[in-house]
Amino acid sequence: MSAPPKSMEKIMALCKRRGFIFQASEIYGGINGFWDYGPLGAQLKRNLRDAWWEDVVLNPLGGKPGPFGEPVRIVPVDTCIIQHPRVWEASGHVAGFNDPMVDCRESKARYRYDHVSVYVPTWAAPLIKPETVGPKLSDTDEGKPFFAFVSDTPSEAKQKKKAEKAHGELTVVALSAVPKALWPRVVGPDAEKTGSLTEPRAFNLMFKTYVGATATEDDEAYLRPETAQGMFVQFKNVLDTTRVGVPFGIAQTGKAFRNEVTPRNFTFRSREFEQMEIEFFCHPSQAAEWYAFWRDTRMAWWESLGLSRENLQLRAHDKDELAHYAKEGAGTSDIEFRFPFTDPGFGELEGIAHRSDFDLKQHQTFSKKKLEYFDPDGGELLPNGAHKGERYLPHVIEPSAGLDRGVLALLCDAFTEDPSRASPEFLKLAPRVAPIKAAVFPLVNKEGMPELAEKIYGEVCKQFAKTGFIEYDAKGTIGKRYARMDEGGCPYCFTVDGDTSKDQTVTVRNRDTAQQERIASDQVVRYLADHLR
Ligand code: GAP
């Protein structure tokens, strides 16, 4: 039997209590869809971003070769949040980055059309098809109301109760499956009366702003909804100024903004968030192999950071789910994590898409600048799949990860409850990402112990302070100090006690097992070097 889902309320409370994540503008009542990171959260996020940077940019895949045996080459860029507005016309975001929305005239709430479902009587379900003529159904069921809801919100249970009273046995159908003739009988998720939902309307998710002081229509620009386009737009400059050639990747991390209609589930769906994206350019004939390679490599990376295998899954997109840029080609796969709010289902952590030459082609057309790749070395059939003298638009494999979603997955996976401990809730974060790397304590704040502990603390800081926080704490009972470190996810605590001055040993306490062992006090740095990987 699988364990019950972890409590999101408890995880959010720990995040607040220990300074991982705060509501943005909290003292003003907060602002929906925006989150700030506190001291521990900022460092955790930085550690995750640094791990990605190290494994993607500085030492790509730790030297693991690509699918054709060659080293994987990736170069970084750092492009602007605001790009020329034509970038977003070329990318398809102006025309296509829309969610159809329905408004409720009564509650004034706005819902994503594809998120709204309706309880209908089971006997009537076969009759409820978009092409059904509504009145035919009304003749047989006396025109009783249908109750709409949004999954995972309070409306789900509230509307179910009312629907059961009205209809007995229920079946759930999508609002989009309910014929328009029956909409006057639908009660919105947060409404009391029927007929309050409007027709679905498109709503663009990009945040608009103005560039310059006049703020006229001509000055309109957008905050980027993805970091990807900056990399496509600079493709030619990167090629011309570095020694990379196809196949190679461009990578960057940075903020993205989406005016999400229903931000929810803590930081999972935010309006401001950070992405870690790779655009990997390859010859079209090798795209399928690179796609499979990146899909599997990225999945293994998330596991290497401590996410449990049973909470991760790879899911290939169905044909009708593919984004506009990935309709052709090898497909798209999502790396999904079982978040407590999706349990037993999964939510997207990273998408790996074969974008074909969609973006380069679009930017070439819109900018009227040639973006083709030409291999000057010539040759018959080159190892990169191109033929002698071939000019072509490379295909792109895009592994696109959410940094904030990554942090949330790490926190949810690490959250552990053990009522027998002084810290009944604590975080089993992998040492590589843990914001506090180690803590040093004198057992009591006297008898020469603080001096010895401070010396060890200084040595540890010298070696490890650039990787995260090193804590020194001399106050309170030792049990409370351990508990505090456990909650912050600190993997190792070293304690100087009465024996230290006699036998030059300290205790090291392991967060996950709560077990202690004695090691030589001059081996603390060595111990951490071996264990903080
Ligand atoms: N360039 C492709 C792209 O942006 P996406 O699937 O829309 O693809 C990539 O986004 C990743 O960004 C997602 O897998 C997710 O981790 C993260 N992401 C997307 N929307 C988000 C949101 N509203 N809040 C937090 N993270 C988000």
Explain the overall architecture:
- The chain is α+β, with helices and mostly antiparallel strands and 533 residues long.
- 29% of the residues lie in helices and 25% in strands.
- The strands form 8 sheets. The chain has a 7-stranded mixed sheet. A 5-stranded mixed sheet has the order 24-23-25-26-27. A 4-stranded mixed sheet has the order 8-6-7-9, covered by helices on one side.
- Helix 2 crosses helix 11.
- It is globular.
- It starts with 7 loop residues before the first helix and ends with a helix.
- The model has no long low-confidence stretch (mean pLDDT 92).
- Glycyl-adenosine-5'-phosphate is lined by residues 226, 228, 258, 260, 269-270, 273, 275, 277, 348-351, 398, 400-402, 404-405.
Question: Could you give the count of β-strands?
Answer: 27
Helix content: 25-40%
Low-confidence stretches: none
Mass-distribution shape:
globular
Mean pLDDT: 92
Identify every distinct bound molecule in the structure, by name, code or SMILES.
Answer: glycyl-adenosine-5'-phosphate
Look at the helices and sheets and give the structural class. Answer: alpha+beta
Distance between the termini: 33 Å
Sketch the major β-sheet. Answer: 7 strands, mixed
What is the percentage of strand-forming residues? 15-25%
Q: Evaluate the radius of gyration.
A: 28 Å
Describe the strand arrangement of the main beta sheet, using strand numbers: 3-13-14-20-17-16-15
Number of helices: 15
